[in-house]
Amino acid sequence: MLVRGVLIEDTFAEAFTMRVARLVITGGTPRWAREAGLKLTGFATSVIGCKCEAGIERELSETETPDGRPGVSVLFLTMDKESLPQQLISRIGQTVLTCPTTACFDGLPDGPDRLPVGKALRVFGDGFQGSKVIGGKRYWRVPVMEGEFLVEETFGMQKGVGGGNFLILARDADAALAAAEAAVDAMANHPGVVLPFPGGVVRSGSKVGSKRYKKMVATTNDAFCPTLRALTESQLPEGVNSVLEIVLDGTDAPAIAAAMRLGIDAACRPGVQAITAGNYGGKLGPHHFHLRRIMGGESQAA
Amino acid sequence: MTLTLTLRTAPTVPLEADVLSPDRLSGVSALEAAKLTVVHGNQRADLGEFFQVGGAADGELHLTGDLAQVKQIGTGMARGRIVVHGSVGMHLGAGMTGGEIVVEGDAGDWVGPEMSGGRIVVKGNAGHMLGSARRGSQIGVRGGEIVVFGNAGNEVGNGMRRGLIAIGGDAGDFAGVNMLAGTIVVLGRLAWRAGAGMRRGSIISMHPAELLPTFSYACDYAPEFLRVCLRHVRGLGLTIADSHVNGRYQRWCGDGIELNRGEVLILDSAGTASRS
Fold first, then answer.
1. Is residue A258 part of a domain?
2. Looking at chain A, which residue has its C-alpha nearest residue B165?
3. Which of A38, A149, A231, B9 shows a CA-CA span of 20 to 30 A to B101?
């Protein structure tokens, strides 16, 4: 399959079931909502090193938030149920509670599991905190030097998908980066999807384990490193001198598939030779995103 | 099809009609409903002696007429809906745990005493003891919502433990007396001695209020929870101005003779609060 002259390889991205929460962070201005969102999702690129993956899903207008202020929605993912509340409590406590003007609300009210995040954070109030039940939801008012920090008592958790991906194989680094930026722009604000890496782009794709260091759980994906073409079993076609990867996490597979379609299409531009994807032979992750099916209009992952 | 009851014989003394509840009338035909027992003064009577009953019970009940002498409508109600096309008497929704009651006219005293869930909406005025504890009881409303578009009498939310009471007009004396927690929003004026003896909870006023000397000024600020609360109240049908949602409020803590963890929030643009 060719898209504007770019080869879409007959392969698939292999993704995993994760646990996801959606946070709605509001602020007095868009700037402060964004500041809190950026800090909250900082150092949350990969569960390999960060124990969680997170990103800003999209910016929210005043009409979309519980308190009528501008905000951002954030998706937060971990591999298991237990670590998600731990990550949320420590990160919200250090990055949202501390951020001027912000409040933090649950963005998955129908999530089957409820995480007592606000209930844990309330104790920062040292006994001076108070709660309010409004419209059937309990909120905690934590007194802070600025005034009050408002946080919802529980946050919904549901199954999500982590590790959707595609790789942009380009003739040089400039072309790869331009294509990656175009792909990220095309996927920005897509509902149910975040791109957890810096600017949505990964330059250091990894393989499982190590050929040399036994304790390493992930090392460089040498098969796609152009500088190692002569030293390893390279998977790079002739003429490819730079590869960038886009990783997608989301609330469900259809959302990721829809975003991948937009991103891959945008990445098919001059200087890009092929689009491929990372997988483990289909043996590890239950979600398989076949590139050609997606680009053919099929929204469901196989 | 809903069950409809139209008042045809006005009771000369109060009529206790706790059978007028979707729970009690579930699966009951119009004929069977007419034979249910009510108490007229100190006499037992059939519901059909006072109401013309039609339709079939499907969880919704429509009552029509001036029911100001009819008490205990919706007592213990857990689900369903009652719509009253007229006014109602005392003890509306007493101890209700769920469902909704909408009154197009006025309501008497003791609306929603000790309710723990559900919603009562009064489009007109409400009497005294709105959402209060019964006499001799320490705890009043334990949950749910009461919305009054007009004015309410004295002792709104007496002993309130949880939930929301929103009043579009004025509230009488002793609003939030002995309040334990919960929220009372008064868009009109608060009368004397609001929050007397309150331990926790919030009383919100959009007008200047004369507070007891046992309340202490804390600060002027924009409570974030109030934005959420007022937007919710707006969704319930009361007129909430943007200036209310975005406004700054004086926070007064009290009652100092109790736990002192309660608060009265007074919209700042309304002027400075004063102590009596």
1. yes
2. A134
3. B9
Listed by number, the residues of chain B in 180-219 with a beta carbon closer than 8 Å to a beta carbon of chain A are 183, 200, 202, 219
For residue B261, which residues of chain A lie inside 8 Å, CB to CB? 130
Which of A93, A124, A158 is a domain's end point?
A: A158
Q: Nearest C-alpha of chain A: how many angstroms from B51? A: 35
| CATH label of the domain that carries residue A130 | 3.30.70.520
Chain B CB contacts of A150 under 8 Å are: 224-225, 228
Asked if the structure places residue A234 within a domain, the reply is yes
Whose structure tokens read 């090193």?
A49
Q: Say if the Cβ atoms of B228 and A69 lie within 8 Å.
A: no
Calculate how close chain A gets to B53, using CA atoms only, in Å: 35
Q: How far is CA B214 from CA A42, A123, B203, in A?
A: 47, 28, 15
Nearest to B263 by CA among B206, B215, B192, B191: B215
Residue A175 shares a structural domain with residue A290: yes
For residue B234, give the DSSP letter: H
Q: Residue A156: count other Cβ atoms within 10 Å of its Cβ.
A: 18
Q: B116 and B93 in contact (C-beta within 8 Å)? A: no
Chain B positions touching A144 (Cβ under 8 A) are none
> How would you write the pLDDT of chain A (302 residues) with one tens digit per residue?
899 999 999 999 999 999 999 999 999 999 999 999 999 999 999 998 999 999 999 999 999 999 999 999 999 999 999 999 999 999 999 999 999 999 999 999 999 999 999 999 999 999 999 999 999 999 999 999 999 999 999 999 999 999 999 999 999 999 999 999 999 999 999 999 999 999 999 999 999 999 999 999 999 999 999 999 999 999 999 999 999 999 999 999 999 999 999 999 999 999 999 999 999 888 889 999 999 999 997 655 55
Chain A positions in Cβ-Cβ contact with residue B200 (cut-off 8 Å): 130
